[in-house]
UniProtKB/TrEMBL annotation, chain A:
The keyword Transmembrane helix does not apply. Keywords: Repeat, WD repeat. Belongs to the phosphatase 2A regulatory subunit B family. GO terms for molecular function: protein phosphatase regulator activity. This is Serine/threonine-protein phosphatase 2A 55 kDa regulatory subunit B.
TrEMBL record, chain B:
The lineage of its organism: Eukaryota, Viridiplantae, Streptophyta, Embryophyta, Tracheophyta. The keyword Repeat applies. InterPro entries: 2AA_helical, ARM-like, ARM-type_fold, HEAT, HEAT_type_2, PP2A/SF3B1-like_HEAT, PP2A_Regulatory_Subunit_A. Belongs to the phosphatase 2A regulatory subunit A family. GO terms for cellular component: cytosol; nucleus; protein phosphatase type 2A complex. This is Serine/threonine-protein phosphatase 2A 65 kDa regulatory subunit A beta isoform. Keywords: Repeat. GO terms for molecular function: protein phosphatase regulator activity. It comes from Dorcoceras hygrometricum. Gene3D superfamilies: Leucine-rich Repeat Variant. Residues 358-508 form the Phosphatase 2A Regulatory Subunit A helical domain. HEAT repeats lie at residues 10-48, 164-202, 203-241, 242-280, 281-319, 320-358, 359-397, 398-436, 476-514, 515-553, 554-586. Residues 276-351 form the Phosphatase PP2A regulatory subunit A/Splicing factor 3B subunit 1-like HEAT repeat domain.
Length: 514, 586
């Protein structure tokens, strides 16, 4: 390793924010040596909730797995398993498996003869209420609202009708979830009748009937139960690419290739179409929606990105159908620089707002761009992520990797951005002006092994030394050849308030903190 | 465990099933909670049942919803109003659950109980409950709290009143938009219980906070309280405090807010009095009628009649009518449709001259609108039109519109117009009907769509009821019976259906002389579906005709059918025969 060179570059960094030292903290679902990746286990979405105490992942098999913060006393302090381990002197944020549930099943659309995959492509957390975790999950067609809540497992005893003495009378089942040892009886006609025909004029003495009593309920262990509360279906003709919750806590949007629909969380039978790009003649179609997201503070503002590399901001106050945008953000390409791939690599795969709503981050195949909402002439910063792959675009086109949709994320303080790449690598960039932080990490237990710091920040036209950096970090593999397009790190999330990144490499979830 | 006497068995089962694994049985028990309470007696209900319910509150939402509803009417079962407070704890927990409908029901029940509680109990139990909820950790509790203030406030001592007002003011500024929305929704109700002196200060400042909220969703609920507050304030205060707000709302950036204003504006006119209405509200309303956003125009157009009723005719003609004229050729069909459904109500306001001169052209253009919904909306309000402009003028333009709708290529449109035919017939009279509409009614019997044929048959029945059997025997029955020879069996079925509907209206004599022979002939049809329908029709005619006719005509015919090779025909024939026997024996 030519680590010395890397450090030299790092030492030249001059900025207000010092680069972060990333440490591996945890991995879930790591493959054993020689173990094959199971297709259904591949993680296809992940999201922290607003407080950062919970993390949800969705996988190709339609399952959602929830993790919870484990290194905090106040969180679930009453639980026995917490008390057995001493977490008070925690060195790093730690999460643990909480619960898993099957969110979507494979379906078949009979009308259009299409298979609908169960893959959970989007997860959005809703406002936590009354201790219950509430989240939306979607596959390509259907969105579901889930409530995950602790339920006490109950043991019922002291019933009026004694099961053990029920002799000839067909009796009731009264077993609770846990009391499987009790006998189960079925209802006979004898009992059906009195229950339903119980007359109100049955004589009851004024003081009541002393021999009757209420059953005794003993609460046992608590269990987490996930229940599907609502299903928002049949509103999308094309594949849903994103869902996003509104800051008003009562609405969300879902976007497919051509349309964006607005839903009320409480109403699953109607949604309102707010953007419709579908032309009368499909041949006139020039671009599709690739991602849509609500502004974190202003409930009336949303942004959506297109396959032509533009981000449009729309104001829901303006009109009911917002086909005309209020602002459009795109970068003008230098004339003459067009190639066959120009349009393909311009397509934005993900767009996110910073927490304060002032900045937006977008990811296209080659770069990560930071936009100021108040400046639509061009991005305030462009970070080159895949510049070293430019000579290989042909290969990437042939194996369709050029269409991979990489996610991107801003840190809670808006100072840094992260996005994924091939070879299970992800890159962290400093966004603050003057920061030249650019760290490359690989999703494994030793992320700093290939870490390199370099000044990858380009002020628009200035081509940075990233290609150089790549050579530095993988000297053994020869220049430019150093990537494995089958190991792609598409999905990652930054903790809302701490320097903690969760990223998904195939079926493994890696966490890093700094 | 004790054993239970036989007669108590059902109640014992009901009690045990409060905790059954099967949610349907738990629901059933909860719905019979009053029976359980009576069986336990008032004292044990208070001491055992209610605490039991309070402890077992992590059930499914359906069960919790039923529980919230039952507890609202539970005062008699706990021993009357002096014990009403024992019902508060279980409802308090239900006020905090995450499912909105359960919370709403719990709040509703708490209000119902609170309004019956004694004043001292309200102070001891209800007000502390409201305060606890308002300070709740989760937004759900705080949302519920907003709906309880109007019950708690009136009986509170002065010290508590001040505190309650300040708590409500905090809720209006809560971090969570859900809480602010709940505060905005309930502000009108709360304000109605607050003393006039505090109304102008405390409540108005809360109102102002809400009207300046960042969230559209909060602001548009504040619009709703404008009218409610306006009615509570003195006119001059209303003009000073509410009017500027509503005028600025009517120019809000958000179309949803303007939409709400368009819906509510007329309610405020009375509160502010005639002069401010003329100077401020009419211009605001005119702006809304000309809004850029179609949704806003729809809302405004839908209220045009209600608004005009408040104004003087001159104002309406001068300011509103020009807008109405524009709206009648609006680019959005939904705007025109909304206008069409209310426009006729303007006629009495404007008077006959203005109506004929100004309104009638608009009305006629809407009647010729390219969208069927618009035309239908006009036709559905025909009774109002008729009173103002008279039938002669109307019929000239009406008929082409009706004929066009009757032949519309969308069957739902045809269905809609059929439903209006009896109304039209009664309005337009026999003469007009015979000339113009009779043929249409017959034509629908042979429509390609079953629902239309079905509706056509029903329509004939309603017409027969309207114009009487004598008219029907001339104008309906012969034409209908002619069609029984249609080569397609589905059309013959329709005729059979029409006959069975007409028979009860026409009475025994006509049925026996005219309808019955046709039915009997149809029993010789070659299609089994016709034959078993004959059996059904015959069964339905049994009560109408004399017993002798039943024996002489219906029974032999059914006996024949009962030996048909087709199993369905035999089945229905036998069923009809059984019903004859049943009639005879009873």
């Amino acid at each position: 390793m030519n680590g010395g060179d890397g450090e030299d570059v790092a030492s030249t960094v001059a900025g207000p924010v010092a680069p972060l030292e990333w440490k591996f903290t945890q991995v879930f679902g790591e493959l054993a040596l020689g173990e094959e990746v199971q297709e259904v286990d591949v993680i296809t979405s992940l999201e922290f909730n607003k407080s950062g105490d919970h993390l949800a992942t969705g996988d190709r098999g339609g399952r959602v797995v929830l993790f919870e913060r484990a290194d905090r006393k106040e969180h679930g302090g009453n639980r026995r398993d917490l008390e057995t381990v001493d977490y008070s002197v925690s060195r790093y944020p730690e999460f643990r498996y909480k619960v898993e549930f099957q969110s979507h099943e494979p379906e078949f659309d009979n009308l259009r003869s299409l298979e609908i995959e169960e893959k959970v492509s989007n997860i959005q957390w809703c406002q936590t209420a009354n201790g219950a975790l509430i989240l939306l999950s979607s596959n390509e067609k259907t969105i579901k609202l889930w409530k995950v809540q602790e339920k006490r497992v109950k043991k019922i005893s002291n019933l009026n009708i004694d099961l053990s003495k029920a002799e000839g009378i067909v009796s009731v089942t009264s077993s609770s979830v846990s009391s499987s040892s009790e006998q189960h009886f079925t209802y006979g006609s004898f009992l059906d009748c009195p229950r339903n025909c119980l007359s109100d004029n049955l004589f009851i003495p004024p003081g009541g009937i002393p021999s009757l009593h209420l059953p005794v309920v003993k609460s046992g262990e608590t269990r987490l139960i996930a229940r599907s509360k609502r299903v928002y279906a049949k509103a999308h003709h094309y594949h849903i690419n994103s869902i996003s919750n509104n800051s008003d806590g009562e609405t969300f949007i879902s976007a497919d290739d051509l349309r964006i629909n607005l839903w009320n969380l409480e109403v699953n039978i109607q949604s309102f179409n707010i953007v419709d790009l579908k032309p009368v003649n499909m041949e006139d179609l020039t671009e599709v929606i690739t991602s849509a997201v609500f502004h974190p503070i202003h409930c009336n503002v949303l942004a959506y990105s297109s396959s032509r590399g533009s981000i449009r901001l729309i104001d829901l106050r303006q009109s009911a159908l917002c086909d005309s945008h209020s602002k459009i953000y795109e970068e003008q390409l230098a004339p003459g620089s067009r190639t066959f791939f120009t349009e393909i690599i311009a397509s934005i795969s993900d767009v996110k707002f910073a927490k304060d709503g002032r900045y937006m981050l977008s990811r296209d195949f080659m770069t990560l761009k930071l936009w100021d909402v108040n400046m639509d002439s061009g991005p305030v910063a462009t970070f080159k992520v895949h510049e070293h792959l430019r000579p290989k675009l042909c290969d990437l086109y042939e194996n369709e990797c050029i269409f991979d949709k990489f996610a991107c994320c801003l840190s809670g303080d808006g100072q840094r951005a992260v996005t994924g790449s091939y070879s299970n690598m992800f890159r962290v960039f400093g966004c603050a002006s003057g920061s030249a932080e650019a760290t490359t990490l690989e999703a494994n237990k030793n992320p700093m092994r290939r870490l390199v710091m370099t000044s990858a920040r380009s002020s628009r036209s200035l081509c940075s030394g990233f290609t150089h950096a790549v050579r530095l970090e993988r000297p053994g593999l020869g220049s430019g050849n150093s990537f494995d397009s089958t190991r792609k790190l598409l999905h990652l999330a930054w903790h809302p308030s701490e320097n903690l990144i969760a990223c998904a490499a195939a079926n493994s979830l890696y966490m890093y903190c700094a | 465990m004790s054993t239970v006497d036989e007669p108590l068995y059902p109640i014992a089962v009901l009690i045990d099933e409060l905790k059954n694994d099967d949610i349907q049985l738990r629901l059933n028990s909860i719905r019979r909670l009053s029976t359980i309470a009576r069986a336990l007696g008032e004292e044990r209900t208070r001491k055992e049942l209610i605490p039991f319910l309070s402890e077992n509150n992590d059930d499914d939402d359906e069960v919790l919803l039923a529980m919230a509803e039952e507890l609202g009417v539970f005062i008699p079962y706990v021993g009357g109003v002096e014990h009403a407070h024992v019902l508060l704890p279980p409802l308090e927990t239900l006020c905090t659950v995450e499912e909105t409908c359960v919370r709403d029901k719990a709040v509703e029940s708490l209000c119902r109980i609170g309004s019956q509680m004694r004043e001292s109990d309200l102070v001891d139990w209800f007000i502390p409950l409201v305060k606890r909820l308002a300070a709740g950790e989760w937004f759900t509790a705080r949302v519920s709290a907003c709906g309880l203030f109007h019950i708690a406030y009136p009986s509170a001592p002065d010290m508590f009143k001040t505190e309650l007002r300040s708590i409500y003011s905090q809720l209006c500024q809560d971090d969570m938009p859900m809480v602010r929305r709940a505060a905005a929704t309930n502000l009108g109700k709360f304000a109605a219980t607050v003393e006039a002196a505090h109304l102008k200060t405390d409540i108005m400042s809360m109102f102002e906070d809400l009207t300046q909220d960042d969230q559209d969703s909060v602001r548009l609920l504040a619009v709703e309280s404008c009218a409610a507050l306006g009615k509570l304030l003195e006119p001059q205060d209303c003009v000073a405090h509410i009017l500027p707000v509503i005028v600025s709302f009517s120019q809000d950036k958000s179309w949803r807010v303007r939409y709400m204003v368009a819906n509510q504006l007329y309610e405020l006119c009375e509160a502010v009095g005639p002069e401010p209405t003329r100077t401020d509200l009419v211009p605001a309303y005119v702006r809304l009628l000309r809004d850029n956003e179609a949704e806003v125009r729809i809302a405004a157009a839908g209220k045009v009649t209600k608004f005009c009723r408040i104004l003087s005719p001159e104002l309406a003609i001068q300011h509103i009518l020009p807008c109405v004229k524009e709206l009648s050729s609006d680019s959005s069909q939904h705007v025109r449709s909304a206008l069409a459904s209310v426009i006729m109500g303007m006629a009495p306001v404007l008077g006959k001259d203005a109506t004929i001169e100004q309104l009638l052209p608009i009305f006629l253009s809407l009647l010729k609108d390219e969208f069927p919904d618009v035309r239908l909306n006009i036709i559905s309000k025909l009774d109002q039109v008729n009173q103002v402009i008279g039938i002669d003028l109307l019929s000239q333009s009406l008929l082409p519109a009706i004929v066009e709708l009757a032949e519309d290529r969308h069957w739902r449109v045809r269905l809609a117009i059929i439903e209006y035919i009896p109304l039209l017939a009664s309005q337009l009279g026999v003469g007009f009907f015979d000339d113009k509409l009779g043929a249409l009614c017959m034509q629908w019997l042979e429509d390609k769509v079953h629902s239309i044929r079905d509706a056509a048959a029903n329509n004939l029945k309603r017409l027969a009821e309207e114009f009487g059997p004598e008219w029907s025997i001339q104008h309906i029955v012969p034409q209908v019976l002619d069609k029984i020879t249609n080569p397609h069996y589905l059309y013959r079925m329709t005729i059979l259906h029409a006959v069975s509907l007409l028979a009860p209206v026409m009475g025994s004599e006509i049925t026996c002389s005219t309808l019955l022979p046709v039915i009997v002939t149809a029993s010789k049809d070659k299609v089994p579906n016709i034959k078993f329908n004959v059996a059904k029709v015959l069964q339905s005619t049994i009560p109408i005709v004399d017993q002798s006719v039943v024996e002489k005509t219906i029974r032999p015919c059914l006996i024949d059918l009962a030996e048909d090779p087709d199993v369905d025909v035999r089945f229905f024939a036998n069923q009809a025969l059984q019903s004859i026997d049943h009639m005879m024996s009873s």
